[in-house]
Amino acid sequence: MDSKTIIRIQTVTKRFGPAVAVRNVSLDLAEGEFFCLLGPSGCGKSTLMRMIAGFEEPDEGRIELDGADLVGTPPERRPLNMMFQSYALFPHMTVSGNIAYGLRRGGLDKAEQAARLAEMIRIARLDGFETRYPAQLSGGQRQRVALARALARRPRVLLLDEPLGALDRSLRESTQAELKELQARLGTTFVMVTHDQDEAMSLADRIGIMQAGSLIQAGSPREVYERPASRFVAGFIGAANLIEGTIIRREPVFARIALADGTEIEARAETGEPGDAVAVMVRPEHLSLAAGDVPGPNRLAATVTATAFLGDGVSIRARLASGQDIRVLAHGGAPEPLRGEAITLAFAADAARVVT
Amino acid sequence: MSAARLSPLNVTALALGLAFLYGPILLVVVFSFNASRLATVWAGFSTGAYRGLLDNAALMSALWTSLRIALVSACVATVLGTLAALALVRGGRFLGRGMFTGLLYVPLVLPEVVTGLSLLLLFVALDLGRGTVTVAIAHVTLAMSFVTLVVQARLIGFDRSLEEAARDLGASPLQAFFGVTLPIIAPAVGAGFLLAFTLSLDDLVLASFASGPGSTTLPMYVFGQARRGVTPEINAVSSLLIAAVALTLVTVTLLMKRRAGASLAR
C-alpha cells in the first residue's frame, strides 16, 4: 500500500495487573484500507481496538492518528467511531434518536443534522423504521442501526468489534458483502476485530493476526495464507497440514527436511538452519494423489482413513507412517481411494513452506 | 404454569394463608365504613368517618407533616442512595467496598428502636432541635439502604458498552450519565423513591424518637388516638394509608419488572 498512514501504533503494551493483554505491538494502518485484527478470543485484539477508541490507555507506546498522538485524548474527542459487538443501541431512543445521538454533538447545524440523518437512514435501508425502538427490530436491522450510528459522524476511522457475530450464518454472508461494498463506496478506513478467519479473509485488504497479545503477522489475505509467519498462523488461516521434521540442508530459497521416518522432502524456507526442528506446511489443495510406483521428489506414503465426496472434489483424510493425520483436497476427476488403501501423496516444493 | 392444577388442599392452604395475612387489614377497611362510633359494634354502612377526616384539624396537620417529611426524605434518600449504588457497583475494588456493601443491610435488620435511640442520642449530642428536620434525617438513614439495594441490582445488569457508545459518539462522561445511564436505570431509581416515600409515611418508631413538639406524623397521631380507643375515623385513616401503600407497592413492582425500552416501545 502506498497510500498515507492514518493510524500508527508504536510499541504499544497494555497490562491488566500481572497479565499482559497487548505486548509490544507496532502497526501502521493505511488510509482507506479495510484492516482485520484476527485471533482467538483473549489474544488482545479487542484490547488493542479499545485503545484506539480511547476506552483503554496503553501502558507503553504511542497511538497516532494523522501524525498526532492520541494517548490521553478521551474517546469523545477522537475523530473515530466504534460499532460495538453487542451493538450497544440506546434502548430508550428510537432508530432516529440513536443515529442522531452523535450528530447532535458534531458541530453541525440543524439542517445538516437532518440531512445527515436522512442519508444514514437511506444507506442503512432503515426507511420506515425511524420511530421504532431497538427492541422492535430484527437482529439484522439492529446491526444496520449500529453501523449507521457509528458512520453518521463521518469518522476518520471506523472500528468494528465483531460486527457480524450476533447474526445467523446466512445473514452474515450477505451482510459481509454489504459491509465490503459500503466500505469501498465511502472510502472510510475500517478496522475490524474478528475471530472468524473466513470473515477476515473475505472482507479485509490486510489481516493482522494476533496471538497471546502479540501481533504475529500483518499482510494481505493472500500473503498470510501463502506465507504464514508461524505454525500458529498456518493453522489459524485456512486448513493446513503441518508435517514435523528437521532441516538437513539449507539453500537460498528451499530447504531439505528429513521426516522422522527418514523420508526427505523439499520446501520453500525463509528461516531455519540445518538441525532446526521445523514444520512443513502443505495446504490440503496442494496435495495430490500420485501413482505409488513412480518415484519422484516430495512423496509421502499414507493410508486412507476417511473420504468424503464434495461435488467439486474429494476430501481425503489419511495417516502418514509417522502416525500424523493429513488432509487432502483432491480435485474432481481424481479416482476416489478406498478406506484403508495405501496411497502416495505428492506436492510441489513451491507449494510447501517451512514454518517454525 | 397453566398445566398445573390447584388441588383442593392447595386452594385451602392458599385461602387460609391469605386470610391470615389480609384478614385483619380487611377488618380495618370494613370497620372504617361503620356508622357506629364504637369500633366493635357494626351499626350499618356509612362514609361519615371519611367525611369527618377533613374536618379533623389535628389529623390533617399530622398528614401534612408526614407528607412533607416523606417527600423531602425520599428525595434525599434517592439521590444519596443512587450515588452510593454507583460507587459500590462502578467504583472498582476500593478499600472497604465489601464492608460498605454489608453495611447496607444493617439498617434493614437493625431493630428500629435501636436506630431510633442512637439517632436520638446523636441529635441530643449535636444539640439539634428535634422537629420535622430530625425526623426527615432519621427517615433518610433508613430509606437510603433500600434505594441503594434497588438501584444496585439494576446497575449490575447495566451494559457498560452503552455508556462507552455514548462517549464514542461525543458525549462527556456527565452527558453520557444523564442522557443514557439515568434514563435506563430510571425505573429502579423511581422504585427506590417510592419505597423511600412509603417507608417514611409508615414509620412510627423512628419518628417517635426523632420528633419534637409540632412534628407529629400521621402514624404517631393514629397510634396516639388508637390508645384511647379505636374509632371509625382511625380506621378510615388507616384504610387510606393501606390504599396508598398498596398502590405504591404495585407501582414499584411494575417499575422493577419493566425492561428498559420494552415498555417504552409501544
TrEMBL record, chain A:
Organism: Enterovirga rhinocerotis
SUPFAM superfamilies noted in UniProt: MOP-like, P-loop containing nucleoside triphosphate hydrolases
PROSITE patterns: ABC_TRANSPORTER_1, ABC_TRANSPORTER_2
Protein name: Putrescine transport system ATP-binding protein
Keyword annotations: ATP-binding, Nucleotide-binding, Transport
SMART domains to which the protein is assigned, alphabetical: AAA
ATP-binding as UniProt keyword: yes
UniProt-listed GO biological process terms: putrescine transport
GO-annotated molecular function: ATP binding; ATP hydrolysis activity; transmembrane transporter activity
Protein family according to the UniProt entry: Belongs to the ABC transporter superfamily.
Xref: Pfam families: ABC_tran (PF00005), TOBE_2 (PF08402)
Cellular component annotations (GO), alphabetically ordered: ATP-binding cassette (ABC) transporter complex
Domain ABC transporter: 7-237
Highest taxon listed in the record's lineage: Bacteria
UniProtKB/TrEMBL annotation, chain B:
Family annotation (SUPFAM superfamilies): MetI-like
TM spans (from-to): 12-33, 69-91, 103-126, 132-155, 176-199, 236-256
Pfam hit, one: BPD_transp_1
Keywords recorded for this protein, A-Z: Cell membrane, Membrane, Transmembrane, Transmembrane helix, Transport
Membrane topology field: Multi-pass membrane protein
InterPro entries: Bact_Polyamine_Transport, MetI-like, MetI-like_sf
GO biological process annotation, one example: transmembrane transport
A single cellular component GO annotation: plasma membrane
Record localization: Cell membrane
Domain ABC transmembrane type-1 as annotated: residue spans: 63-253
Family: Belongs to the binding-protein-dependent transport system permease family. CysTW subfamily.
Record protein name field: Putrescine transport system permease protein
Organism: Enterovirga rhinocerotis
Source organism phylogeny: Bacteria, Pseudomonadati, Pseudomonadota, Alphaproteobacteria, Hyphomicrobiales
